[in-house]
Amino acid sequence: MPIKIVCFNKISKEYEILNKFYFNKIQKFTNIEIMEIKEIDYGNVKENQSKNEYNINERILKLKDYEFYLLEINTKQLDSIDFSKIIDRNINEKSGNICFVIGPSDGFSENFKNNYINKISFGKITLPHQLIRIVLLEQIYRAFKIINNQKYHK
Fold first, then answer.
1. What's the structural domain count of the chain?
2. What CATH number is associated with residue 139?
3. CB-based burial of residue 18 (10 Å sphere; 0-12 exposed, 13-18 middle, 19+ buried)?
4. CA 136, CA 102: separation in Å to the nearest integer?
5. Which of 12, 58, 59, 76 has a CA that sits 20 to 30 A from residue 39's CA?
6. Across all residues in the chain, what is the average pLDDT?
7. Does 71 carry a binding-site annotation?
8. Is there a binding annotation on residue 125?
9. Is residue 8 a known part of a binding site?
10. Where in or outside the cell (predicted)?
């Protein structure tokens, strides 16, 4: 079951240790790839969204047989158990391929969001994109621990 994460910009050195830590732990369960896109910032929100969404679509439309999940603050919030069920269901009932998309700084336009059925939220607070990337990696790792009935640190 390959997992792909589409996100903007390279991870900064402040987050690199945690990024590598969770990435390596996930690789014990499945293949994972992080697809980094350079974020466009022209100063105009709508123009930024349009170009960044185009760049997302350029990357993910090449992924056949993937189930896509947008990380979107204004949608259903998931706890770790619900999140693990998404991954487990994907492994057992679907293609086994899953892609999580972390949006750009200006977020997704309504039109873009409407093109994707699956959206998840880890809460109503706004987090920096680098930090939500770490949170997502940690939750993917935790999901595999839950699925495999393995202990996770408390």
1. 1
2. 3.40.1280.10
3. middle
4. 9
5. 76
6. 91
7. yes
8. yes
9. no
10. Cytoplasm
153 domain residue, yes or no: no
126 annotated as ligand-binding: yes
Q: Which domain holds residue 86?
A: 3-147
Give a yes or no: residue 154 inside a domain. Answer: no
Q: Is residue 120 part of a domain?
A: yes
Whether the predicted model's global pTM rises above the 0.85 cut: yes
> What's the alpha-carbon Rg for the chain, to the nearest Å?
15
Q: Please tell me whether 140 is known to bind a ligand.
A: no
Is residue 44 one of the residues assigned to a domain? yes
Q: Please tell me whether residue 123 adopts helix, strand or coil conformation.
A: coil
On whether 61 is known to bind a ligand per the annotation, the reply is: no
User: For residues 13 and 131, is the Cβ–Cβ distance under 8 A?
Assistant: no
pLDDT digits (tens, 9 = 90+) for 10-40: 999 999 999 999 999 999 999 999 999 999 9
122 is an annotated ligand-binding site residue: yes
58-125-99 Cα angle (round to 5): 30
